[in-house]
Amino acid sequence: MSTDEPSVPIVCTECETETRVPLSDVADALTRHNDGKHDGEEIAEVDPALKDQLADLVAEDLGLFEGA
């Protein structure tokens, strides 16, 4: 993994695992895990705390919090 590329935490509550993968590999890693371990059911996901933080940053950048 390149040290220049950010890594993203992936969690699977059913397997009780957490790993980090390069940002460019997130979609493939999730698909590979969920297909191989959970018959394609979307169990593993990007860490929910990170998803919430990113959503807040995007909303702020788009000005969605202004006037609220």
From TrEMBL:
Q: Pinpoint the DUF8149 domain residues.
A: 2-66
Q: What is this protein called?
A: DUF8149 domain-containing protein
Source organism: Halorubrum aidingense JCM 13560
